[in-house]
Automatic annotation (TrEMBL):
Organism (species): Sphingobacterium nematocida
Designated name of the protein: Uncharacterized protein
Signal peptide (UniProt feature, chain positions): 1-18
Keyword Signal appears in the UniProt entry: yes
Keywords per UniProt: Signal
């Protein structure tokens, strides 16, 4: 029985996905970004903490030339529903 359970768990773990991968198209040199807007590329993974009510989600952008750090909160601590999703 233990071996069958182990085989089923291994089989199920190979079929699961953590998140859907969404491939973004590159911004061409002729495309323009509107004034006051920006494009941020990256992988964003939500950390869940059920006992503590979840984790806050922050994004940190670091300018490697000036070493300036920009940080902003995307989602507060006790909020578990999806926000800021692209359609």
């Amino acid at each position: 029985m233990k071996h069958i359970t182990l085989i089923l768990l291994l089989f199920a773990s190979t079929l699961t996905n953590a998140q859907t991968i969404k491939h973004l198209s590159d911004v061409g040199s002729k495309d323009a970004v509107a004034n006051g807007q920006a494009i941020i590329y990256g992988n964003f993974i939500q950390r869940l903490g059920f006992a503590s009510g979840g984790f806050a989600q922050d994004i940190r952008l670091i300018n490697i030339d000036t070493k300036e750090v920009f940080a902003f909160r995307v989602k507060p601590t006790f909020k578990s529903s999806k926000e800021n999703t692209c359609k």
